[in-house]
Amino acid sequence: MNFGSDNWAGAAPEIIDAIVRANKGLAPAYGGDDLTARVEAQFSDLFETDCAVYFVATGGAANGLALSVMTPPYGMVLCHEQSHVQMDECAGPEFFTGGAKLLPIAGNAGKLTPQSVAKALASFPHRPPHGAPEHVLSLTQATECGTIYSANELKALCDFAHAAGLKVHMDGARFANAVAALDVSPAALSWRAGVDVLCFGGTKNGALAAEAVIFFDKTMAKDFEFRRKRAGHLWSKMRFVAAQFDAYIADDLWLRLARHANAMAEELSNGLAVTGGVEISYPTEINQVFACFPDGVADNLKDQGAIFFPWVTPGDPANGKMHRLVTSFNTTSQEVDAFLKAVADEMAA
User: Fold this and answer.
1) Is residue 6 part of a domain?
2) Strand 197-201 with 76-80, pairing
3) Which pLDDT does position 168 carry in this prediction?
4) CA torsion, points 81, 87, 92, 94, in degrees to nearest 10?
5) From CA 53, how far away is CA 101, in angstroms rounded?
6) Which of 138, 247, 335, 347 could be cross-linked to 18 through a Cys-Cys bond (beta carbons 3.0 to 4.6 Å apart)?
7) 122 and 244 co-located in one domain
């Protein structure tokens, strides 16, 4: 009954097998090998457009490094108040950008709208040299609340951002879950909607340590290779990161893994929703379930071995009573059933 995080899951067997294959023999270092070049090129096929791709090891590095080429140190990044770049990266974006300001914006269920962004901009008027000039709109797909932007919602946000002179960054740590849930092409949820830079995550969805920063506007990537090197994310044995993405993309493994995680969350959410006294806080659209339990129930479930955590963020509608449960590519129906039975027993006690 481990629903702590999809980060707790190991790597998918296909990913491990790919790493083992890449371990044979010698290969040029620092991404100069044939495998890295081939896999980087595969992203242009996957996204149906010519793009520049850079591999890094963590989502935090991907976001921070991407933002570092999108805004000057004195610039401003608009983001949701619950976003990972705002809440969970220990001021990493500020570090990588050299001090750019993050402007957090409230929004229902983790999502921004053109109206909320416009209001934030109006509340932070351009006052050179006193006010930080806006440069980037950062979006999270899927959001920290487990919700998804549709292609139309993304396009409306990107169109507004570009009209306001902003570039659009997307934190796609769970991009696979969003694509799988909406059953659309990755292009539809990225550059076709207007996203300029996507941080495409693999680690939460079966990879060992693999994130890709994808520039759909290749001119923006001009200095990125130097920033990646300076940040210590130019792996000397880059072929092991490339190998993970090679397996991840092949035969749509990334979507199969995400669909399974989403399906397990749906089972979990549906079961909790029909249990009297349990409230589902946000729509369950990907592999995250947000639930409020009656007093004492969560602690009793944890005493029985269940693993999940409180979820307290700005704008928390549950006043600290909400918990997050996350499924992964290797969550089983048996685990879900066991947890639901434990919840039902607690509620009947």
Assistant:
1) no
2) unpaired
3) 98
4) 30
5) 26
6) 247
7) yes
129 assigned to some structural domain: yes
> Which tokens belong to 220?
């923006």
270 located within any domain: yes
Taking each helix axis as running N to C, give the angle between helix 34-46 and helix 239-249, from 0 to 180 degrees, rounded to the nearest 10. 40
pLDDT in tens, 154-208: 999 999 999 999 999 999 999 999 999 999 999 999 999 999 999 999 999 999 9
The residue written with tokens 């947890």 in the block is 339
| Helices assigned H by DSSP within the chain | 13-22, 34-46, 59-68, 84-87, 92-97, 114-123, 151-163, 175-182, 224-230, 239-249, 253-273, 297-303, 333-348
Half-sphere exposure of 105 (CA within 13 A, CB side): 24
**Buried/exposed 261-293: b ≥16 CB within 10 Å, e otherwise:** bbbbbbbbbebbeebeebebbbebbbbbbbbbb
Q: Give the residue from 241, 179, 182 showing the smallest Cα distance to 54.
A: 241
Q: Is the dihedral of CA 70, 72, 73, 79 positive or negative?
A: negative
155 Rama class: left (phi>0) / alpha (psi -120 to 50) / beta: alpha
pTM over 0.90: yes
Residue 315 has pLDDT above 80, yes or no: no
The identity of residue 23, as a single letter, is N
**Is 90 exceeded by the pLDDT of residue 320?**
no
pLDDT score recorded for residue 110: 95
Residue 318: pLDDT band (50, 70, 90) is: low
pLDDT digits (tens, 9 = 90+) for 261-275: 999 999 999 999 999
Domain of 231 in residue numbering reads as 12-252
Residue 149 has which token pair? 């932007």
